[in-house]
Specification:
589 residues; Rossmann fold; binds NADPH dihydro-nicotinamide-adenine-dinucleotide phosphate; binds magnesium ion; binds pyruvic acid; alpha/beta
């Protein structure tokens, strides 16, 4: 048996002993001769040129390498002769993507591209945002998470499980990038409206961070997706032979809290005070507590509570142009009193309080929520979770949504229940009976969980509803008129919001910043959008919108004395734009 010992020699690796296998093919790395119990060294070369350059998604340009680059970087022969520029590559890939009829296949093709050629992936996403958002984000990302174990190819992001307890700092150091600005982290317990998907929730941080880059211009190398795996209570996954996570029920209580605490401390120690940690799709029994616990020591943001609140408030502010009155003139009813529902409710109450100078305890009174047990009223106070208590107003008990609509007579109906088909025909008809222009938001994701479809909202309200939904719906023709539904999704907010925190060097998140983001987004809705009944601008302008949101958030950070990047840039919109990553190829010397 040949004995292998490798040493580095002037940049070349050579074996000091016999390195052929039976005198035949050279076994330079000892792969063939090593038996299973024989240790070998996993050598790699780190210079990105030649073959390794083509396999490095950050620098690979595929057929776009120029003749000069092919010579200078040892690529001759590794590529076919044709040279295609990025524009042509984009055209070819979009053509190929459109051939897939199954959305999940498009998702997989996009993930492959992201792992092959990062700049081309972002070029596609930015230039075709309305077409590709439903692929890399809701609704398709939901299905991808459900099937993550089966479609798993190469790992994306960082997995921190209970096995890593006590060594999370070391795990963070395994990530190849050292300078991280945004982390999106999930524990997979409430993935969209699909419930506990355990470790397979990783699709969500990965998807959210691609939007940070595509929509908000945050450099991909400074984004880190993380999944914390404390087990899952999803029996189907626990019994699935392809499940990629820990095969145990969820850790709770002290064990959970200690792991999260170690994680939060390790992140700060490794990346400093100014890394933004975005909590995503945690179950509400942890989400509110984590946000409260870490908001005074870390730069934390809960997208489901705060980002959703900000995007919905923006839509409401914009909708006043269509429905008239001020925010304080409206009555709000929510189906769903969890993270999204109570988060939105609180931000509406804060905005009304800011506008009217009335105390927030007063302004909350025109906001009502229904949970799985019915309308939240004062007689239920004792048994309510803490985040529901501020909404327990005086009223007799009401069981179902329809009765609640009849009793409360809302002008605005917001679905944040995670349960599809709950805005029934009777509910929508009653909203249309009560209001000239009822505002109906079906926020739950993915499409299967939407409280109603766009078609249902328009037809059941006889064309009266102003409608937006968390996952996209196509325009609907009703009685010869085209109705274009908007997408009320926190994707409008978090990329620009995060960019604003980064460019100002903010060290904490404050509610005032969320209000500023809402106002900035509402200000981007044009007359042309209003004419179509839209309360959100189209995603095709999102990078410009994100720059405006970032500027307002950064301005607020400076005003509140929470910004550390000094001096304050004069024109924050221009500054935000100048900081944005653009995916065009770079020329290599
Ligand atoms: N469009 C967007 O940008 C966003 C959308 N979402 C979506 O919102 C949904 C909810 O998310 P989140 O708030 O975090 O979830 P939570 O689990 O925190 O809250 C869900 C709420 O809905 C209530 N609920 C569940 N079933 C029913 C029912 N049949 N009737 C009445 N109420 C019900 C629950 O009641 P109980 O408390 O009694 O159990 C709970 O109050 C998800 O589908 C998510 O995808 C979330 C964030 C952003
Ligand atoms: C959009 C989003 O964050 C959610 O549905 O959870
Ligand atoms: Mg979410």
């Amino acid at each position: 048996m040949s004995r292998i010992s490798l040493k580095e020699n002037g940049g070349e690796v050579s074996a000091t002993k016999d390195y052929t296998n039976g005198g035949g093919v050279r076994d330079l790395y000892g792969e063939d001769s090593a038996t299973e119990d024989h240790l070998i060294t996993p050598w790699t070369f780190s210079v990105a040129s030649g073959y390794s350059l083509l396999r490095d998604p950050r620098y690979n340009k595929g057929l776009a390498f120029t003749e000069g680059e092919r010579d200078a970087h040892y690529l001759r022969g590794l590529l076919p002769p044709a040279v295609l520029n990025q524009e042509l590559q984009e055209k070819r890939l979009m053509h190929n993507l459109r051939q897939y009829e199954v959305p999940l296949h498009r998702y997989m093709a996009m993930m492959d591209l992201q792992e092959r050629n990062e700049r081309l992936f972002y070029r596609l996403l930015i230039d075709n945002v309305e077409e590709l958002l439903p692929v890399v984000y809701t609704p398709t990302v939901g299905e991808a998470c459900q099937k993550y174990g089966s479609i798993f190819r190469r790992p994306q992001g960082l997995y921190i499980s209970l096995k890593e307890k006590g060594k999370i700092l070391e795990v963070l150091k395994n990530w190849p990038e050292k300078s991280i600005q945004v982390i999106v982290v999930t524990d997979g317990e409430r993935i969209l409206g699909l419930g506990d998907l355990g470790c397979q929730g990783m699709g969500i941080p990965v998807g959210k961070l691609s939007l940070y880059t595509a929509l908000g211009g945050v450099r991909p190398s400074s984004c880190l997706p993380i999944t914390i795996d404390v087990g899952t209570n999803n029996e189907k996954l626990l019994n699935d032979e392809f499940y990629i996570g820990l095969r145990q029920r969820r850790a709770t209580g002290k064990e959970y809290a200690e792991l999260l605490d170690e994680f939060m401390r390790a992140v700060k120690q490794n990346y400093g005070e100014k890394v933004l940690i975005q909590f995503e799709d945690f179950a509400n029994h942890n989400a509110f507590d984590l946000l409260a616990k870490y908001s005074s020591s870390h730069l934390v943001f809960n997208d489901d509570i705060q980002g959703t609140a900000s995007v919905v408030l923006a839509g409401l502010l914009a909708s006043l142009k269509l429905v008239g009155g001020t925010l304080a003139d409206h009555t709000f009813l929510f189906l769903g009193a969890g993270e999204a529902g109570t988060g939105i409710a609180e931000l509406i109450a804060l905005e009304i309080s800011k506008q009217t100078n009335a105390p927030v305890e007063e302004t909350r009174k025109k906001i009502w929520l229904v949970d799985s047990k019915g309308l939240i009223v004062s007689s239920r106070l004792e048994s309510l979770q803490h985040f529901k208590k501020p909404w327990a107003h005086e009223h007799e008990p009401v069981k179902g949504l329809l009765d609640a609509v009849k009793a409360i007579k809302p002008t605005v109906l917001i679905g944040s229940s995670g349960v599809g088909k709950t805005f029934t025909k009777e509910v929508v008809e009653t909203m249309a009976f009560l209001n000239e222009k009822p505002l109906i938001l079906a926020l739950s994701n993915p499409t299967s969980q939407s409280e109603c479809t766009a078609e249902e909202a328009y037809t059941w309200s006889k064309g009266k509803a102003i409608f937006a939904s968390g996952s996209p719906f196509d325009p609907v023709e009703y009685e010869g008129k085209l109705f274009v539904p908007g997408q009320a999704n926190n994707a409008y907010i978090f990329p620009g919001f995060g960019l604003g925190l980064i460019i100002s060097g903010a060290i904490r998140v404050r509610d005032e910043m969320l209000l500023a983001a809402s106002e900035a987004l509402a200000a981007q809705v044009s007359e042309e959008n209003y004419d179509k009944g839209l309360i959100y601008p189209p995603f095709s302008n999102i990078r410009k919108i994100s720059a405006h949101i970032a500027a307002k958030v950064a301005a607020k950070a400076y005003d509140l004395g929470l910004a550390s990047h000094l001096p304050r840039p004069k024109d924050l919109v221009k500054y935000a734009e100048s900081c944005m990553y653009s995916p065009g190829y770079r020329s290599y010397r």
